[in-house]
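Lab manual, section 2.4: Encoding a predicted structure.

Procedure: take the sequence of the chain (222 residues), apply the prediction step described in section 2.3, and record the output as structure tokens. A sample record is shown.
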Amino acid sequence: MVQASVASYNDNILRRDLKMPLTIARESEAKLNIERSEFIAKSFRVASSQEARKILKGVTSEFPDATHRCFAWRIGLEKLEEFSSDAGEPSGSAGRPILGAIKKHQLTNTMVVVVRYFGGKKLGIKGLIKAYGEAAQLVLAKSGIQEFKPEASFTFKVAPAYFNLFIARLQSAVGNEGAMDINSDLLQVLLTIPQEKKQEVTVFAERAKKRGWLLAFSTKSG
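Recorded output:
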């Protein structure tokens, strides 16, 4: 079942021979039960190892009583960062097959975490490799694939008197190329744009700050 699903999403979404950077289309969750052990796999889009580790803390809080929380990530373009962890399982039996699933589909800026609840029966090294690999493949099949387009994000802290004016000018500056999250209570605006627009928006933000529209702003790429 897992192999069929993965083959289908490879064929129908994107071909590997397109030679374009790829990432997951959406974050997903999948479950697998093997010999009374439950495996819960979760996929995430991540821009940095720092973001990945922050997400891991959230997974730990979500599954505090899990037996193991194994994971792997692959981040970057020219300089790929790959990392995996067996999280207490025998060496090479969990993190490596998870990473292998990510690499198989040539994904970047992707992390997969597989949570295990031990069911009382040991699976052995080969069984663990198969289980963690299948769980990772299953959640990636649900996640889908899309072309990876680097993005930049901004956080703007807006001066109260200029809140509506700033939003109007920002919307005019980015047009349909940006996704905005406006929080009027905190006087804060979050903006995500294509990486190639980062310099343009940075210049706009610096001018807005000089005019007193902004109290502060920060940016990051990923």
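Check your result against the sample. The chain has two domains: 2-147, 151-221.
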